[in-house]
Amino acid sequence: MAAKMEDSTRGSGDSSVTSSNMTEIPTVAQIIERQAASGESSAAGGGTGPPGSLHHPGFALFKQGAEARLYRGTFLGRPTVLKERFSKKYRHPRLDEKLTTKRTQGEARTVARARKAGIPTPCIYFVNYQSNCIYMEDLRCATTSRDYIVAVQSVGAGDSFRALQPIMDKIGKTLATMHDGDIIHGDLTTSNIMLKQDASATEPEVVLIDFGLSSVSQLAEDKGVDLYVLEKAFLSTHPNTETLFRIILKSYTKHSRKSKDVIKKLDEVRLRGRKRTMVG
Amino acid sequence: MAKVKPQDIDCVAYTKGPGMGAPLVSTAVVARTVAQLWNKPLLGVNHCIGHIEMGRRVTGAVNPVVLYVSGGNTQVIAYQLKKYRIFGETIDIAVGNCLDRFARVLKISNDPSPGYNIEQMAKKGEKLIDLPYGVKGMDVSFSGILSYIEDAAQSLLDSKQATPEDLCFSLQETVFAMLVEITERAMAHCGSEEVLIVGGVGCNERLQEMMGIMAAERGAKVFATDERYCIDNGAMIAQAGWEMFRTGHVTPLVDSWCTQRFRTDEVEVTWRDDSGEPI
């Protein structure tokens, strides 16, 4: 919070959003910088943590998610994130093994496919199918779109919409490219959509992560559900952002070749739940 | 009998929805009638909110992620900024509906309930049959699993690849793993350390056990109730109605209608502050 106060007094000199009345709204680069400085980065940045985990010498745990642990270290001389899927004791051992293997394989395959389709996603260096570990590129200079939206919204309600608009536009375009490549992410949330901006870059880049629930499909139905999952996650994580989400859909519609069928399916899926309010 | 006289009552709470039309209408008519006879204010209550508030009251859970599972609903709910927000839910049929319809395939008795009988048979099952697994982000889908098992059940039984008990076991293990997974995702998402299970399917002890293991692994606590409170009851409408009434809600007579479709996140939660504490 203190950092924000400083920023607001500094003026808009280095802001990528060029509007004079937006002096208080932070840029993606500023958020990344801020998180790196405070060591609170949720997904990337310079946090080093205690050295050496028991199972992965040279790697330090920096995040424990619902089904995987993330370690940071060096692999073949490159800064690397190690993602280890661990066993979930609550489910039947056979089901557990099936899901863990399937998701590790699926993630590795889809990331390769996504990169081929031109979607920025961390490069995979190595996969160990015995221990269900994926070694991938460590995204430096990145933040989650979730953190960015929260940071921008906490500053100003009216201006935040205009500041976030270009980012939403880019997210929509990236999703369009992904679906045109017949890739279904399966778990789109604002935490899985990263914003990366290297020191040399003038604009942030959208990077998709966490393809564990992904699949390959040409069906408009699957793509519609994919967008529906994002819509739900988006609106529940960031209350009162309906207009913001609409920009993503608008940009998606503009950039995707088959958007008409997908958006039609999205409308259908929205009405499918049993207790949805029906109007008309 | 509760031995309560009309003058002991502050207000009349009734279920505004969601639910089946006929029972909702009959209850609304009765509620309107007694409220006018006794000259008491009326309160239309959301059925799902009733489950949540009763669960919190009985278990003492403060700010839990709620898994609401019944024959008509499958939702993962968490409180955020004056609303019970739905983080995950079924995108087709409810988990209880899936279990009930499967019971019909195996001709399992409805006494006392199909879900209870599946639970008892599943205890004797040993073999896990591969079933589709339908988690999509924080949402789940059961219709594919149901179609699959409806198609496959007879041939699996005929060829002795599985017993009816094995099928019950496999279905339970699969659908409950899905429910626990999306609940854990929601907990990670909200940073919550409590989970509350409500709704009829919440009576299932295997589901409670799996949720308990998940919670223990992440240092969280699980809260569940037995069939007295899990299954629909009138007290839960009174409990939610009381929370609403004490924070200024009243339903005017002209608005005392009911509706089959009424989302959990449409209700303004006036009885909790922004951080979730009671007001």
What would you note in describing this structure?
Chain A: It is found in: Nucleus. Chain A: Component of the EKC/KEOPS complex composed of at least GON7, TP53RK, TPRKB, OSGEP and LAGE3; the whole complex dimerizes. Chain A: Residues 1-280 form the Protein kinase domain. Chain A: One of its GO terms (molecular function) is protein serine/threonine kinase activity. The complex is a heterodimer of chains A (280) and B (279). Chain A contains 8 helices and 10 strands. By secondary structure, chain A is an alpha+beta fold. In chain A, strand 8 and strand 9 (205-208) form a beta hairpin. The radius of gyration of chain A is 20 Å and the shape is globular. By secondary structure, chain B is of the alpha/beta class. Chain B has a domain at 6-49 and 232-266: Nucleotidyltransferase, domain 5. Helix content of chain B is 44%, strand content 15%. In chain B, the strands form 3 sheets. Chain B has a 5-stranded mixed β-sheet, sandwiched between helices. A two-stranded parallel sheet of chain B has the order 1-2. In chain B, helix 3 (95-105) crosses helix 4, helix 3 runs parallel beside helix 5 and helix 4 (114-122) crosses helix 6 (164-190). Chains A and B meet through helix 3 and helix 6 of A and strand 5, strand 6, helix 6 and helix 7 of B.
The CATH superfamily of the domain at 6-49 and 232-266 in chain B is known as ATPase, nucleotide binding domain
Using CB atoms under 8 Å apart, which protein chain pair has the greatest interface? A-B, 36 and 44 residues
Tell me the number of helical segments of chain B per DSSP (H or I, 4 or more residues long): 9
Q: Overall pLDDT of chain A, averaged?
A: 84
Classified by CATH, the class of the largest domain in chain A is: Mainly Alpha
List the domain count of chain A as a whole number.
Answer: 2
Biggest β-sheet: strands ordered side by side in the sheet of chain A: 1-2-3-5-4
CA(first)-CA(last) distance of chain B = 32 Å
- Class per helix and strand makeup of chain B: alpha/beta
Unreliable stretches of chain A, pLDDT < 50, 5 or more residues? 1-22, 42-49
Going by CATH, the architecture of the domain at 6-49 and 232-266 in chain B would be 2-Layer Sandwich
Coarse morphology of chain A: globular
Order of helices and strands of chain B: EHEHEEEHHEEHHEHEHH
